[in-house]
Amino acid sequence: MNYPTKTTTNIRKRVNNRLAQSLAMLLVMTIILSACSGQGKSNEVVESMTRDEVGSLKVAYTNEQNYYTQYGNAYNAMFPNIEVEVISTESIWNAEDPAAELKKLVDEQKPDVISLTQDQYALLANDGYLYDLDAIIKQDQFDIDAMMPGVIELLKTNGGGKLYGLSPSFSSKALYYNKNMFDKHNIPYPTNQMSWEEVLQLAKRFPTEGTGDEQTYGLVLSGSTAFDLVDTMGTAKGLTYVDYDSGQLAIQTDEWRTIFETVTNAYKSGKVSIPSSNSNSFGGGVVRRGAGDTFSISMGTMSFAADKAAMTIDQPFLMNMLQMSQRFGGGARGGGGSVRAATPAAPSGGSAPLEIKEINWDVVTIPVDPTNPSVTGNLSLDTVWSIHAASENLGAAWELVKYINGDQLAKTTSNSSPQLTTRTAYMTNEEHNLEAFTILGPNPVTFAQKFPTGFKEEFAAMASEQMKNVISGTTTMDDALNIIQTTGQDLLTQKKLDEQS
């Protein structure tokens, strides 16, 4: 018999030690990889649900009544043995810190399905709260190819490259134009993907007609400040004026100066209405608070609908108003198609109510930057439906998300909802160019730009006052830009300090 020598014994010890170290390292890596999976079970096989399935489901939504009216009754009919508990999210909107309140609600209540705004979706996705839907979508062969590509891109961009939710509808804007006014003055109609400069030149071709409440414009916008158009044009060109991380503001550049000059000249012409702080008192098309929709009418919307503007930028809500007017004959006839704003001021600052008229209209894409004509900064998500990463009821949760974002519900609601359905096959209108709302993708610049709380609104108001001084001739463009730069930098510094404290 051969006995092990001292040398072979040492070799075996070293081999055993290395093996033990390797196994320990493998165990550590397994633990790390499991932790890095973000609580999620995105690769877990989710078995198909049957009608007789018994279970429970927690849904975070605005309130119970809205949930059952819009989705819950239909879901219960499909799965009568799934007990659903609705967790109201209304407390989030009145909280001092809505983001913290949202996380607190999710941590404490642990909902399986969560309805979110675009910003909330980005927050929870990046913090590991949401379930990656890619695997379950492939497993279930759920058709997202029929959904608007820009919406899927927007969801993935906000989710750090992954799909953590689905949105059945989206918001976008288009350029509405009044065909009768164009025909009257023998001016060619606007077309898809025109530049802002081209649209402003088009607006200047219209003669100024009427005064006061009866004045007509080439272009009326729904913004609340004169600076809004400058900001919109800058975003289209890929420009930013705030570096959030460094706390520096840069608006006194050649590129921004050109935009300021273009916009102030358009306002000076009298063919483009100058927005004021009260001209947007009815909102701006559709104002969303939580998962519910509150419809309100802006002055730009009303001016176009009242046949006082050749062009305006607006959401699909204006289209619904115009179609209703056409259906009922338009004009102020007591019932039917007459719609009056509650307390509108005319573009000139008057107080006469404006009435919807029967208008021959169409839409084209919102103006773009010619060097990047396929994107827009006006594409955004409506309610996003996501599943909690730690949900123990994946099957029931996925069935609800799938139903809300599915083909059947889109088909059912497409003709009754003022929102744009993500399933664009049901956005049909033989008379009008609805692709204007869908052919542009999201602009990456809108995600790169970040502002301290409260800065953007105060900065826009200050910059607008300086623009009005230039328009009235009381100051020069050089002086105005200098004030906007210095005052804006001071404001940015202060708002950053306020955030830190």
The largest beta-sheet arranges its strands as 2-1-3-15-4
Level-2 CATH architecture of the largest domain: 3-Layer(aba) Sandwich
Helix count from the secondary structure assignment: 18
Structural class by helix and strand composition: alpha+beta
CATH superfamily label of the largest domain: Periplasmic binding protein-like II
Number of domains: 2
Sequence stretches where pLDDT stays below 50 over 5 or more residues: 1-16, 22-40, 279-295, 331-352
- N-to-C span: 80 Å
CATH level 3 topology of the largest domain: D-Maltodextrin-Binding Protein, domain 2
How much β-strand is present in the residues?
5-15%
- Average pLDDT figure: 83
Task: Describe this protein's structure.
The chain is of the alpha+beta class. The protein folds into two domains: 55-171 and 380-438, D-Maltodextrin-Binding Protein, domain 2 (3-Layer(aba) Sandwich), CATH 3.40.190; 174-377 and 445-500, D-Maltodextrin-Binding Protein, domain 2 (3-Layer(aba) Sandwich), CATH 3.40.190.10. It has helices at 6-36, 64-78, 90-93, 98-109, 118-126, 134-140, 149-158, 179-184, 196-204, 227-236, 254-268, 299-305, 316-328, 394-404, 407-413, 445-448, 455-472, 477-500, and strands at 55-61, 82-88, 113-116, 165-166, 169-171, 174-178, 242-243, 248-249, 285-289, 292-296, 311-314, 361-365, 375-376, 380-381, 384-387, 420-421, 441-442. Strands 2-1-3-15-4 form a five-stranded mixed beta sheet. Strands 14-5-16 form a three-stranded antiparallel beta sheet, covered by helices on one side. It is globular. It starts with 5 loop residues before the first helix and ends with a helix. The model is unreliable at 1-16, 22-40, 279-295 and 331-352 (pLDDT under 50).
